[in-house]
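Consider the following assembly input.
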Amino acid sequence: MISLNYRDSRPIYEQVKDGLRRLIVSGALRPDEKLPSVRALATQLAINPNTIQRAYLELESEGYIYSVAGRGSFVEERTAADKARRAQLSEQFRALAQELTALGATRESLIALLPPAGDAGDDKKEETT
Amino acid sequence: MISLNYRDSRPIYEQVKDGLRRLIVSGALRPDEKLPSVRALATQLAINPNTIQRAYLELESEGYIYSVAGRGSFVEERTAADKARRAQLSEQFRALAQELTALGATRESLIALLPPAGDAGDDKKEETT
Amino acid sequence: MISLNYRDSRPIYEQVKDGLRRLIVSGALRPDEKLPSVRALATQLAINPNTIQRAYLELESEGYIYSVAGRGSFVEERTAADKARRAQLSEQFRALAQELTALGATRESLIALLPPAGDAGDDKKEETT
Amino acid sequence: MISLNYRDSRPIYEQVKDGLRRLIVSGALRPDEKLPSVRALATQLAINPNTIQRAYLELESEGYIYSVAGRGSFVEERTAADKARRAQLSEQFRALAQELTALGATRESLIALLPPAGDAGDDKKEETT
DNA sequence: GTGGTCTAGACCACG
DNA sequence: GTGGTCTAGACCACA
């Protein structure tokens, strides 16, 4: 489900966050679906529950999931979180494209790196905002 | 010449590295041109010389500059470093584009974020990756 | 009658409490009227009877209802409970207004948030919600 | 500076957050002013550094402060965070006023609880958005 | 010395 | 059993 890379400089809780976010955004985890419990995921990944807890906490504050004490954590309806993240990633994208261009990459070479049109989502039809 | 942002979460030495790399890549600093001395730059930016030292060391190990004991640091010819960095950034770019697409961004919206053609601006015409 | 929101961070028993209190305060449930039995309400809301039990117990200790062993729970005359709660909420209200003012909200903007006059509703002529 | 109440049901890190937020919003701590270090505040309040750390972390993610590893934490310029919090508090305020009204409070009695006009800020002049 | 991350283990409220 | 909070103590990168 989620793969950790201990040699990666990124903190573990962020790798967990990214992994879960990917599952959510891609539709592999559907709204209101239950996530694995903090302890269960900690055991599965062989890391401390606090680390998972932190990942869940941040995903919640970012609007990707919601947690109910005593019941578990669940996937949130996708709304504002997506917009916020898209804005964030778009800025990264723009900056990256600019730097690559400064390094001599042509506009065409960048376009060639984009995913082909018409394969948007995974198993859901995505709208184009 | 180089602007530091103390609020940025990126460490200072990396901001220095990025600043210098930008100057080199953009051609503002030309091959074999002498960089400011560690102490001079430290004074100018009002930061610790250790921080500048680290930036220089890493730039050297990445192939952007070379140092001559007792004389200073100089801009390296641009060769392998560029290719390595472009490959790295291209992969980031590809991953970012994929994620944005999964989030519903259209191919057209991404293309719109690319820098306009015809401003590549270097000192050679470089071919695509 | 009572709506539960499982995403709400507030525990279920509190949502039940609030729902019942609202019904009582608004007059929808009249003094000495019988409340649904713990088990009945639990079934209706599809939650654990313990949760309802706890809500009833706390409402009783707060003076909103009274229980008669073997017969059920009933709505208390509204007296001390109201006063206590109003005092509590008033303090919250005062603190909130102060903080909003500190954040730059004008007195007028706060007044604009108050319910319109003329629907106050006391303990005499109350219509249901 | 900050007072903790262990009998309060609110978690300690939230009490710390509120205390600091109050100091920031009131202007007692000015933009770019340095906050006490995590360890220093932990010692002063006689609680675990992790608890302070969490408070700082959340204040940062809410836009009240920014942290620089190795240098400390500082008060952020006040912008979006204020707007978000005011919107949040305004909703609370509206709901509270409604409930008090349902409990029989008159519009006039609520207005009487508002801070007198013309004493807005602390030592800064606050604008009325 | 500073913030940031992680672990280990504990206790609590909730359902 | 679940999430939430807190403690104690450790190690790291950074300046």
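Residues 11-13, 47-48, 50-51, 54 of chain B lie near DNA strand F (CB under 10 Å from a C1'). Ask yourself how this observation constrains the way the partners meet.
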